[in-house]
Design a protein that fits this description.
- By secondary structure, this protein is of the alpha+beta class.
- The chain is built from three helices and four strands; from the N terminus they run αββββαα.
- The strands form two sheets. Strands 1-2 form a two-stranded antiparallel ribbon. Strands 3-4 form a two-stranded antiparallel sheet.
- The termini are far apart.
């Protein structure tokens, strides 16, 4: 049984999906994800390697002081 995706979901999945590091899109390598119900191509998503992981750690360390000073309610926004 094949279920049709909603139009807005189809539109979202039609473009490669990047990682977000420090609030910026980051896409160096991608991999195709398939629909598990029928094996058809579903989306191209960013894959993180050593460089992207290092960038994410640096961005997280830079953002932590300001983020940790927020109240839990503000962090959830």
């Amino acid at each position: 049984m094949k279920t049709e995706l909603l139009a807005n979901v189809q539109d979202f999945l039609a473009k490669p999906i990047p990682n977000s590091i420090g609030g910026q899109p980051c896409m160096t390598a991608t991999e195709q994800v398939v629909n598990p119900s029928d094996g058809s191509p579903l989306a191209q998503v960013a894959m993180a390697g050593e460089k992207e992981i290092d960038l994410a750690i640096t961005a997280g360390a830079k953002a932590f002081p300001a983020w940790s000073a927020l109240s839990p309610a503000d962090r959830s926004l």
